[in-house]
């Protein structure tokens, strides 16, 4: 049986979609081929890498990339993890079923943090929310 090809899409492919790809690879590698990409490519967010490492996942092998680099991948489901990506989902991805599951933007939240630790707490919360979604809801969402 072939695996379901799932793309996690966000604006810059630096944080939320990277976390989601990491969790999907870790929790469902037997059922899902996970990808992440962005409307833009902002590079990997160091705080996302840091908090994922705290949870035991190394996402440094992933890279920030444009959605257009996956044009030849026969995606089954695209999950947009931010409103901007949902509103601007590239047309070629329309062949796949698009589902929106939004998460707060840790870098934006961290801008108002009083300390580095408080900033990281925003990343940790979103990391844990994404893990919860991937662990408990993702398989139901992609099988609809």
From TrEMBL:
The biological process GO terms on file are: response to arsenic-containing substance
Keywords annotated in UniProt: Arsenical resistance, Transferase
Q: Does the keyword Repressor apply?
A: no
What are the EC numbers? 2.8.4.2
Q: Which SMART domains match?
A: LMWPc (SM00226)
Query: Which residue intervals define the domain Phosphotyrosine protein phosphatase I in the entry?
Result: 4-141
Give this protein's Gene Ontology molecular function annotations.
mycothiol-arsenate ligase activity
Membrane-spanning intervals of the chain: none
Enumerate the Pfam families for this protein: LMWPc
Its recorded name reads Arsenate-mycothiol transferase ArsC2
What organism is listed for this UniProt entry? Rubinisphaera italica
Give the lineage: Bacteria, Pseudomonadati, Planctomycetota, Planctomycetia, Planctomycetales
